[in-house]
Design brief:
27% strand, 5 strands, alpha+beta, 5-stranded antiparallel sheet
Length: 116
C-alpha cells in the first residue's frame, strides 16, 4: 500500500510482513502469543537507486489489549488498539496522510469480514 500526496507522488509505503517471509514478525498477532502486529512505514528509494533497500522510518502497530475482559471475552469485537509511530521528519500533512493510511489499513485487514 502506498501513501501519496495530492500530486500523486509516493511519500511512503506501508509494508505488512506476512507469514515467515517477513521473519515471522506477525505470526498469530495480535494475540496472547504475539502481542503486536506490525506494519512498517518505509520511504521509497529514489528512482536512481534501483535495488536499494527502502528506508524504515516508522511503524503501525495493532496491539493486543492483554488478558483482561476485553482481550479475552470480547475478542470478536471490532475494537483495536493502534499505535502509529510517525517518521521523525513528518510534517502535519504527512501525519494526516499516514493517519488516513492507518484507517484504510484497519478497514482492509481488521474490519472487513468474509460475509461482507
Amino acid at each position: 500500500m502506498t501513501v501519496r500526496d495530492a500530486a500523486d507522488h509516493t511519500l511512503y509505503e506501508l509494508h505488512r510482513p506476512s507469514s515467515c517471509s517477513g521473519g515471522c514478525v506477525n505470526c498469530l498477532a495480535p494475540s496472547c502469543f504475539n502481542r503486536i502486529h506490525r506494519t512498517y512505514i518505509r520511504r521509497p528509494a529514489p528512482a536512481a537507486a534501483e535495488g536499494k533497500v527502502k528506508e524504515l522510518v516508522g511503524e503501525l502497530q495493532n496491539v493486543w489489549p492483554g488478558c483482561n475482559m476485553r482481550g479475552l471475552c470480547m475478542a470478536s469485537s471490532a475494537a483495536d488498539n493502534f499505535v502509529l509511530k510517525f517518521p521523525p521528519d513528518a510534517g502535519a500533512r504527512d501525519k494526516s496522510l499516514l493517519m488516513a493510511g492507518l484507517f484504510l489499513h484497519n478497514f482492509i485487514y481488521w474490519e472487513s469480514r468474509d460475509n461482507q
